[in-house]
Amino acid sequence: xxxxxxxxxxxTYHQDTKHxxxxxxxxxxxxxxxxxxxxxxxxxxxxxxxLPGEFxxxxxxxxxxxxxxxxxxxxxxxxLEAVAQLLYLSAGITRKRKYSGGEIFFRAAACxxxxxxxxxxxxxxxxxxxxxxxxHFAPAEFGLRxxxxxxxxxxxxxxxxxxxxxxxxxxxxxxxxxxxxNAWKYQARTYRHFGxxxxxxxxxxxxxxxxxxxxxxxxxxxxxxxxxxxxDVDPQREVAFSLVALGHVAALPPPSPAEAAPLSLETVPLSxxxxxxxxxxxxxxxxxLEAPEELATWRGHTxxxxxxxxxxxxVQLTPLSDAQIPRDPIEEVxxxxxxxxxxxxxxxxxAQLSTMxxxxxxxVPADFLDPPGAQLNDLYLIIHAVEGLSPGAYxxxxxxxxxxxxxxxxxxxxxxxxxxxQELPADAAVDVFFLADLRPILQRFGNxxxxxxQLESGILGGKLYLxxxxxxxxxxGLTFFDDEVTRFFxxxxxxxxxxxLVALGHxAKHQPQ
Length: 513
What we know:
single chain, alpha+beta, NADH Oxidase, 2 domains, seven-stranded antiparallel sheet, globular
């Protein structure tokens, strides 16, 4: 077993899963449609308990919900209706589309390849209209399957080393990721997608929790074996990746009713056969925490970073105020969100760009981000069509609230190439690249820092998605040629690694009149 403190495993995985012009052309992989994995985890021996389908209207503007959080000490306990709303708006089925081979079920949050490898589990004490227990969320039936009866929150408290948010949470939602469901298409690079896809889901979950008045905190530091054992997942196929503590109660959780013994519950096989990509499991094992003393050093102390004073032209960000933002509530924006398949080459306004950047980077409540507002990823932009702004390459300096121009010019062709030779980033108004200096992150957090930096990029990208749709724009997440991205933004980005990419602009379907 590789030690989390030895970051060589993360470097090896990152290097071996990079895309390049050559790697794309020499990879013999093809998608075997006859062996496509099931979109849902199914326990055939457990009947789902249906969740209520009528939701309260929060009335909270999406652009407010994504940029704020509720005080950690606000006493708040979700009832069954709130639980249903949280689950539906983060991982529920929001639309269906039939095609010749069957039916695609689109979910509330964006996911690579619409493969939805993230599963949700609930661990709760007794809530209004919901008994204490460990549950699996079944999106297809929109219900919960009871895996263990009783209050097992104490297991999570011990597994997180006494994390304060977990100590006082009435409800924890655990996010797991299933290797094969995504690796069927994306192979070993899937482990990066775990962070992206879990992150976009969490962006929704955090925003809805704020709208419902629930404090929320993302927790990535936990003993993997304990959490996987509580959920009774097979860690060769499915692994706990993150958890969110929701709500707040004064009392600590009681002792667990029983030991979390194996359940050996039957599940329907995802497909006839699974192809193994050992690199992913090796990366996960190397970033797993096994001893309580590892938890003691996990939380907080995010590596500090400061941009040098700008040397290029700067442009002040001009985000809309609360009085100016569209009032579309978060639940409506989530339900109309999609992933834009074609952008119109029409400009967006500086206020729109500023608002998306500002609201998406107001801070993520997470155990690896301290002080509040700390961020692992830096935002680099290729701007094609923003009113009043010269096309070019920029970097966003959050502390100064400015964009610094690194080089001017029409870089649509470059953006298309960097985004794996696709039209989407060439046609968008703006491409936002997330880059991070992995060296201090891995030095501080070990291999598990790689999970954290990918997850944060997904959360920030998910917030950009929601901000774009709140403003009547479109968005889509994309992959990229790793080293070429760093090279394009250098020398400013020298030494950093490309983590994620989100394209923003007007959808060709909904062009401005």
